[in-house]
Design brief:
single chain, 398 residues, alpha+beta, Dna Ligase, domain 1, D-amino Acid Aminotransferase, Chain A, domain 1, Rossmann fold, 6-stranded antiparallel sheet, 4-stranded antiparallel sheet, 13 helices, 19 strands, 36% helix, globular
């Protein structure tokens, strides 16, 4: 689960991280009031969407040369003007895709005198099974580009879960960021703070880009991106309350009600699979045969008929879907349950696109019998390769 920048900063501030004063606003009037509350004389007006690259983004409703989604304001009148242009308009960044995201809230923040910009993030290092700090002196840039062009400028510091962040760990991070004096002292305090927030709140990612050194030598979290492990949200009522449904795909929201692992993609072949690995393999083979998957959808190992029906409805609700591939390997999941769910869903919502079903495993013969005797226009497949060939051919023919 992702949250907005202003929410992430408020959370980090509660742990003691240095962040600027700021106010989240939802109207131009609120933006003007926020400017009055902050000292100035420099304010930063930030679009709040769940996507990076806001500063370089473009608003579809504004002229091509209009400034991006993060703007400096040197007067209270400028704050109101920027808010007027940004609120309710669609911001397109390299992470939103061409459709962009509508800006429904802003963050008005007190400005800062920046001496240098750094990069810092925390994530789980799968190679070590530990939380790791990833840091670079190249802050404010796309870290992926830095990793590709100058990987030597990125350092990873793994943290032993038994000790947490030690003084040596914090010193190593400070050294990698070339911090001295007050900035180094600030990092010795900040690193344990960020680690504590990350672990206590079950975060999946905590990214500070940029982390700045101000002209007075102090560190400040200038931007913050936080996402949480969805499997741990039951432990954090306060975090769940931060969820902004307007930033999520309607189909993904519906899927979450049934505990379905669903992610919308850009292709035209809808997929319903059990098991994340099999789902990935299904998407790969669809691409191998020249088509594109419309979604990742894992119904899980013990899905009920109702859950399968809901999954099918979610797939058919996507107007981009021109064909559907159901690929089930029955272990815990029984093939007859899948078949019953597919038949029930087709009868309820109708079938306007080709449907190919590949079943294998527990109760496979019964599952195929249910499909064959349903009277529905369903194409059976013998294996995954056969299924992929049939659905891609059907979509291209349609």
């Amino acid at each position: 689960m992702n949250i907005h920048e202003h929410q992430a900063k408020a959370l980090l501030k509660s742990y003691g991280a240095p962040v600027a004063e700021g106010v989240a606003v939802f109207s131009v009037e609120d933006a003007s009031k926020a400017a009055d509350q902050l000292p100035g004389p420099l304010w930063v007006v930030k679009s709040q969407i769940h996507a990076g690259g806001r500063g370089k983004g473009k608003f579809t409703e504004l002229p091509e040369d209009a400034k991006g989604g993060v703007r400096l304001a040197f007067s209270k009148e400028d704050v109101a003007k920027h808010a007027q242009e940004m609120l309710g308009n669609t911001l397109v960044t390299h992470q939103t895709g061409p459709e962009g995201k509508q800006v429904n809230r802003l963050y008005i923040e007190d400005g800062a005198d920046i001496e240098s910009e750094l990069y810092l993030s925390l994530l789980v290092n799968r190679e070590t099974g530990q939380v790791a700090f990833v840091v670079s002196t190249e802050g404010g840039m796309d870290i992926e580009q830095v990793a590709e062009d100058t990987p030597e400028k990125i350092l990873t510091v793994n943290i032993d879960p038994l000790t947490g962040v030690t003084a040596d760990d914090a010193s190593e991070i400070a050294k990698a960021l070339k911090l001295e004096g007050q900035a180094r002292d600030d990092m010795l305090s900040l690193a344990p703070i960020l680690y504590k927030a990350f672990t206590e709140k079950d975060m999946a990612l905590l990214e500070v880009n940029p982390l700045i050194v101000m002209e007075n030598g102090r560190l400040r979290v200038l931007d913050a991106k936080v996402s949480f492990d969805g499997n741990a949200l039951f432990r954090h009522d306060d975090v769940r309350e931060l969820r902004d449904l307007s930033e999520e795909d309607d189909k993904e929201i519906e899927a979450s009600k049934y505990d379905l692992a669903y992610i919308a993609l850009d292709g035209d072949i809808g997929c319903m699979v059990n098991g994340a690995g099999l789902a990935m393999a299904t998407m790969d083979i669809i691409k191998l045969y020249g088509a594109e998957p419309a979604n990742f959808l894992d119904v899980g190992g013990g899905a009920s008929k109702e859950k399968v029906t809901a999954a099918f409805k979610i797939i058919t609700a996507d107007p981009n879907v021109k064909g559907i591939l159901v690929n089930i390997f029955g272990g815990i999941m029984r093939c007859d349950v899948i078949a019953e769910g597919v038949v029930a869903a087709v009868k309820e919502v109708g079938l306007k696109v080709p449907l190919v079903v590949r079943l294998e495993g527990t109760n496979v013969d019964l599952g195929k019998k249910i499909l064959n005797e349903s009277g529905l226009d369903i194409t059976s497949a013998d294996d995954l390769d056969d299924a992929a060939k049939k659905i891609t051919a059907a979509v291209k023919k349609a």
